[in-house]
Amino acid sequence: MDQPVKSGPLARNITRISHLDLPGAGQVYVAGDYAYIGHITNKERLGTSILDVRDPRKPRVVTQIHLDDRDSHSHKARVIGDIMIVNVERNMTAIGRKADELPGLRAQLRVALGRDPTHSELAEKLDVKESDIPAVEAMEKVPYDQGGFRIYDVSDRARPRLITHQRTHGRGVHRFDMDATYAYISTEMPGYIGNILVIYDIRNPAQPAEVSRWWLPGQHLAGGEKPGWPGRQHRLHHALRAGDRLYAGCWHGGVRVVDVSDIQSPRTIGEYNYHPPYPEPSHTFMEVPTRFDGRSIALAIDEEDHAASAEEMERRRGRPHGCLWLLDITNLQKIQPLAIYQVSELDSPWSRAAPGRFGAHQFQEHMEGTLVYCAWFAGGLRVVDIADPLAPREVGYYIPEPAPGKAAPQTNDVDTDSRGLIYAVDRYNGFDILQLDKR
Q1: Which domains does the chain have, with CATH numbers?
Q2: What is the mean pLDDT of the segment spanning 287-297?
Q3: Would you call the peptide bond into 276 cis, given omega within 30 degrees of 0 as the criterion?
Q4: Other Cβ atoms closer than 10 A to 29
């Protein structure tokens, strides 16, 4: 592949049309003439940017929504018509997340030990230093109550109007899907361990109404269920709707197909889990609209889970990176893997730059034809043709330069539009509009 240069990105069969130095983002979603970008935690408390992309060579920021809560971020955004939904989730600080676990852990240890646990005993179970426990206890006294999602009227893209803030529970909402009738929300809820699916009727956006819930057996602690896994390893990442089905990525629980023909009673009709032996969790699961020789195909993509130090990277040497999966879902009672697509560490000069992630993360959550556009962290954007589902083939890539002060690029999300343009965002900094060269 091309050798790295300091002056620009590395690319094959992809041309960069324009670039903006926007703060890091978790999602880019394109609808009509506008791109909606949900930002990850940043000093400016920037939640959402709306960009006019009618002229792709000169994208223009129309407006930006800033958060008034320093403990939250809104890094996902979707729009249907004039309604925009953004998530509200607790910032991903180690101490804050441990504070969520402290009450239940303390109660468990009190029963097991017959006394109150010491700071040392709590620290061991929480996997933190004993000196961190006072900070964890301090955050426990100020519980997070902002988690959920916000609904905006964006009929005037320059002046989004907040309609409502629907609160859920715990850390709040991560990713989600939506249509004109329902929002398919991945969130924590009281009585459950880890994120579950909560479906809301949003036809009256001022008063979202819960319709139903779906979860993995073992998540409903209040219902007497007991998880057979540690912590929150099996949980819903998010689900995408296609017809009367939802396709759910379930982290270390693999993937599920959920029947929602009766929207009030979602039920699992297919499942597949490749953990173990593959170590990286299932991020997104999506049906391919094209059939191949009469077979129904779905895509799953892993998330390279944690940014790794040099020491952690050495420990992980030889371990498979997150990758793209092609699955035969013709028979939902016997889902079969067909192929995987992987990127070699030799294919990016930043594949072992620490701290950082190299493997897969996400693909565009809709497709026409046989091209899949994948965000691959330090591997940049990879475009994969699945015309032969047994032999996926890369047809182009684009690896941006690292954000200022960062060891590696971290391409985090991608979307495409009806013009064939590609929109990619970096986890740290950067928004690119790209185009696949004619083949």
Answers
A1: 10-45+55-60+168-436 (2.130.10.10)
A2: 96
A3: yes
A4: 19
